[in-house]
Design goal:
single chain, 169 residues, alpha+beta, FomD barrel-like fold, seven-stranded mixed barrel, 4 helices
Length: 169
Amino acid sequence: MSELVHLVYERPGKDVTTFDEWLVLDRPDAKVLLLERYEGEGGAMLAHGSPIVWYVFPEKWHSIGRFHDADENLTGWYTNFCMPVEMKGTHWHTRDLFLDLWQPVEGDPMWLDEDELADALQSKLVDKATHKRLKNERALIDMQVKAGEWPPAIARDVGLEQVRALKKS
């Protein structure tokens, strides 16, 4: 049975946004959310109005989005580095940590927003201990990318069609 989760997404120095997403799979090691319609700016990675499947891993410093185009075709996976998501019932909160990894379906993975992370460190929006943790997380994920093991299996195997079926059940 799915339930609506209110995810508060905080990006230091920017507006706070709340996303209403369907929790369709709730396991101790992973939560799978469906955002049926992305209302933000569109682009090459993600079209305005397209669905996103989010994979949240309790206690981890990242979440993964499975992004789609306007025709709901998979465009790739977006690893968003963030503080571990705080989950209190249907009210969740996370704080973005600027660094992201984009893995298109076709093409090479690329790290994004490294300049924004450097600026955040300089302006003390991110402290040195958090920056060190991010560098370590990035190194681990880099190894998994090179080994063909990133994103994790759940993000590769549980796609939009399966998530919508889970939402209905």
